[in-house]
């Protein structure tokens, strides 16, 4: 088997005395879409934040394309020892609250990091930005500020913004949870296209339908550990673990 | 009663010294502009340094917090007196800095600027800090996840948003700074308070002080109204923003 894109081994994350991740192992192959389900507080979002070192783990190893991104003296203490540049230029993230920059237009949101971080010229970044915004269906909104866009449009700008850094892995943190129901589909469609193009994706979501259809694997987390993992149909239709059954029962009841 | 009016509202004295006091008041404005410009920049530097993350910068961060706390706790008048009375004798400092006479301004002017900047840098740092902390956490996370360094995120994302949140409190500080330029009179800087007191000593009449007060009113009252307008506008912006999020 080819080297996994992303590999987590015994990852622990604590916030003070609260241990949010209690030893998580996870392998993600290149081009794979992994959907992470679980009740709130189960550590799903923290897991994503560990992967791009927004919340560096205290224990365990994370390999990105074979590189140990947590190694170095003083692991878990400071940023300087972490391979921040290596990670952040390979891992893109989309947030529940969009977190678009409100003082920048849609196009500026997408071009800022390529210009300032990758050192691209303005023209080059704008051409790429335009292409990306067209790809997410917002080619006619380039000059608009986030507050004039709907939630779904904002989230699609956020996806384009992350893609502008040409990531190898994309993290999605409950990206449809803050959206009105009628806007959810447009964002999920964008993500589906991305998956079809072969992007490696870690998707924390409550959209069971999306997980079943698009996911290559479903991971069910609870209490800071992976409870169950496998083929979407197997996990969603015939869960083995009691906790998975309970959770799915509550979610599917709606 | 008439003695009081003669003492403070003698229009003859006011008229006679009008231009003299106005010219001195312009000196208040000059020292205000110079001090305000430097203090606004210095305060921003302090605020940004205070917000740096990680253990490496801990000593600098600690120093910054100590500076801000100490300078806010000592009366400005004392600071000005200490600087003008002490700095000239610090022989290890080059004379051009110790007794500055830059841009044709006297050394009391620059000691006054120094005192005002030291103290108001600390005040404005706290205002900037409030603005920085009012920017949602997700903004920094988004910027960092796109590969920006902490400083890049501060410069391009956080600070531009922070300064739009604080015009009202910052304007309050500036009004306060303008009024505090009168304190520089104690080290013989020829601004309006000093000139008015000289007139009082010569004429045994206080009307020039009222004239000075009038000049300050003329500038500061509209400033205070502007603060109110800015606060109100900011509130409608907040409610409008909330409306968008709900709707």
Describe this protein's structure.
The complex is a heterodimer of chains A (254) and B (247). In chain A, α5 packs parallel to α6. Chain A is globular. About 3% of the residues of chain A have low confidence. Chain A has nine helices and ten strands. Chain A has a six-stranded mixed β-sheet with strand order 6-7-8-3-9-10, with helices on both faces. Chain A is 36% helix and 24% strand. Chain A is an alpha/beta fold and 254 residues long. By secondary structure, chain B is an all-alpha fold. Chain B contains eleven helices and no strands. In chain B, α2 runs antiparallel to α3, α2 runs parallel beside α11 and α7 runs antiparallel to α8. The longest helix of chain B has 40 residues. The C terminus of chain B is likely disordered. Classes of the chains: A alpha/beta (254), B mainly alpha (247). The interface between A and B is medium-sized, with 29 and 23 residues.
Provide a short characterization of the protein structure.
Chain A has helices at residues 44-51, 84-88, 106-116, 122-135, 151-163, 181-196, 208-214, 232-237, 242-253, and strands at residues 6-15, 18-28, 33-37, 59-64, 67-68, 91-94, 169-173, 200-204, 217-222, 225-230. Chain A is an alpha/beta fold.
């Amino acid at each position: 088997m080819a080297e996994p894109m992303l590999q987590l081994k015994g990852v622990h994350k604590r916030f003070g005395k609260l241990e949010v991740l209690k030893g998580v192992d996870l392998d993600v192959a290149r081009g794979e879409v992994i959907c992470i389900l679980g009740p709130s507080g189960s550590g799903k979002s923290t897991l994503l934040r560990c992967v791009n070192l927004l919340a560096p783990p205290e224990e365990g190893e994370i390999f990105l394309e074979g590189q140990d991104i947590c190694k170095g003296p003083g692991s878990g203490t400071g940023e300087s020892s972490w391979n921040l540049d290596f990670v952040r230029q390979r891992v893109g993230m989309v947030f529940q609250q969009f977190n678009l920059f409100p003082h920048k237009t849609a196009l500026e949101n997408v071009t800022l990091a390529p210009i300032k971080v990758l050192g691209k010229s303005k023209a080059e970044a704008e051409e790429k930005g335009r292409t990306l915004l067209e790809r997410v269906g917002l080619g006619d909104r380039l000059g608009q500020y986030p507050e004039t866009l709907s939630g779904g449009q904002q989230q699609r700008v956020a996806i384009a913004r992350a893609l502008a850094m040409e990531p190898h892995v994309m993290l999605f943190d409950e990206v449809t949870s803050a959206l009105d129901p009628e806007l959810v589909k447009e964002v999920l469609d964008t993500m589906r296209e991305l998956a079809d193009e072969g992007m490696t994706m870690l998707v924390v979501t409550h959209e069971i339908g999306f997980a079943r259809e698009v996911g290559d694997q479903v991971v069910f987390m609870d209490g800071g550990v992976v409870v169950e993992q496998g083929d979407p149909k197997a996990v969603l239709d015939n869960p083995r673990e009691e906790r998975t059954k309970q959770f799915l029962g509550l979610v599917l009841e709606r | 009663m008439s003695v009081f009016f003669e003492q403070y509202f003698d229009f003859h004295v006011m008229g006679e010294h009008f231009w003299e006091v106005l010219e001195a008041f312009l000196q208040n404005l000059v020292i205000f502009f110079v001090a305000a410009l430097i203090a606004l920049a210095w305060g921003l530097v302090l605020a940004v340094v205070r917000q740096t993350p990680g253990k490496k910068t801990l000593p600098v961060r600690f120093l910054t917090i100590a500076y801000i706390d100490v300078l806010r706790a000592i009366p400005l008048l004392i600071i000005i007196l200490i600087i003008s009375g002490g700095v000239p004798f610090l022989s290890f400092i080059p004379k051009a800095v110790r007794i500055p006479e830059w841009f044709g301004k006297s050394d009391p002017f620059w000691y006054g600027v120094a005192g005002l900047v030291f103290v108001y840098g600390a005040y404005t740092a706290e205002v900037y800090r409030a603005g920085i902390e009012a920017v949602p956490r997700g903004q920094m996370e988004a910027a960092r996840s796109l590969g920006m360094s902490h400083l890049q995120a501060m410069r391009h994302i956080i600070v531009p948003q922070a300064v739009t949140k604080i015009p009202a409190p910052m304007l309050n500080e500036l009004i306060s700074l303008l009024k505090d330029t009168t304190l520089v009179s104690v080290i013989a800087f020829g601004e309006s308070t000093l000139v008015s007191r000289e007139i009082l000593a010569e004429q045994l009449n206080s009307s020039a002080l009222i004239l000075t007060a009038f000049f300050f009113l003329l500038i500061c009252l509209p400033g205070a109204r502007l603060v109110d307008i800015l606060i109100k506008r900011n509130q409608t912006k907040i409610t409008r923003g909330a409306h968008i999020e709900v709707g």
